[in-house]
User: Fold this.
Amino acid sequence: MGIKPNELFIGLVDFFAILVPGAILSFTFPKYIYANIAPDIICQPPPGSAGIWSAKEWAIFFLVSYVIGHFIHFFGAVTLNPLYERTFYKRKIEKYGSFWATTEDLIKNLIPDHKSTIRVADAFIRTENPMLASELDRHEAASKLFRGLTLLLMALSIKSLIEVRGLARIIYLLLAFLSFWRFSNQRWKRNLLTYELFSILINRSQKVRLEAK
Assistant:
């Protein structure tokens, strides 16, 4: 019997948004992540293992990466989402302002008391046509992955600053900037696609209702 993606404990978004950044941080800063809890997992392989991890070591690494990934996800949302709103989003909304306002009015007419129009539109799309959700999830997973990478690269820049590595610091800052741009681009595409799909589905639904009368 095949395993369906929606039956897995770790979904597409969780894997890229939480587990991958957590695993990268676990590999990059092992002495800060593991301290004296399980240093042999990353710092040096167990004697006689030839560098091959046991199932227990993989389980610990997976768990630590998953927990750390949640903290990265949280700090990314708190720090980088507002920056996205003030930079990338502000520039894009000048072009799509009319469509954005019209769609938000439609959403507020559907559920007036909800504060997040994106969440309402997303829920509507998944209810009306669940097959469309995979494309939204793809953009969301990519945006959150690069949001986490932006934080990690910024941390590496600070680490290189402490260790006086000028070239490395410049490279990390450049990669952090590119990661932030990619995060912003994917986040915008995801939200724009959400509004576009919502508009199409709600208009189709209203048209069907009128024809039924």
